[in-house]
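call fold target=Branched-chain amino acid ABC transporter permease
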Amino acid sequence: MNKKGFVLIAAVMLLIFSPFIFSLFYLNLVTEILILAIFALSLNILVGYTGLVSLGHAAFFGIGAYMSAILAREISPNFFLTLFASLAAAIIASAIIGIFCVKVSGFYFLMLTLAFSQMIYSFVHQSTTITGGSNGLSGIPSPLIGSLDFSNPVYFYYLILLLFILIYGGLSLIVHSPFGQVLIGIRENETRLKSMGYHTTLYKLAAFVIAGGLGGVAGSLYTSFNSFISPSDVYWTMSGSVLIMVLIGGSGTMIGPVLGAAFIVILETIVSSYTTMWMMIIGIIFILFVVFFPKGIVGLGKLLLQSFSKSNKLSAISGKKSNVLYNNNVKN
């Protein structure tokens, strides 16, 4: 078994046994990390693999969250109903928005996604009869699967963990498939792919819809976790937060957004308990990563491993040279 396989199995085992290791506070923290990791992974399809930087991803997160909240309150808290309805709503919204957004690129793509996101935020903020307006929606019942109630934090954690593993595995298959390689080709040189006969606009739209749909799933899970949703979760700052998670963790990798989500959530939890200026501190850390470690935590880890392996090789070589000199001196 290679090192990556060993680390992956160890990480999964740690997550499986987390309820027996951590207190309830830390278990809820891990649950939040997994939900936001799904959100970050969804954005990574656009930013990391397709090269489309979006500042409006919170729109799909909010659509999924509010769809789940309204259905759970008004119709049924059935988990599959709220989850798949949120997924469908986010897919439809991302398909409509994506048709306009994928026609442009670069700065114009970023601004167009931000504009659509702010339109959805404005609707959520002003539609008091549907979304509760600035007060949001509270008292959202816990999800149910049959007679099984997931109000128990341990049950809900395992439900989120299962979904996270399925989504992570599914996205891994997608990015390593021929479809995923085309997305990487669009990121590297879209003009060349067009000259080869690829309809890159359709591929970008497909990536946009996949990212939006999974963003809606994350929003649905986030609502079930907090039993509350407000317009602040649809605001552009939420899009900025998840973008920071992707970039700090390492865009264009699968594990990067997960590490980024864990880093930001843990940092926010620790720093906010000491100061109200935690957002400024996170901003400073983000700037340091962008300037000095543009490949994020994953890139930093690879750099440290390379330095460590080089130092070991140099130590081994110097040790061999010392042995040779010693043997020569003994012979003489």
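return ok
The mean pLDDT is 89. Residues 296-331 form the longest helix (36 residues).
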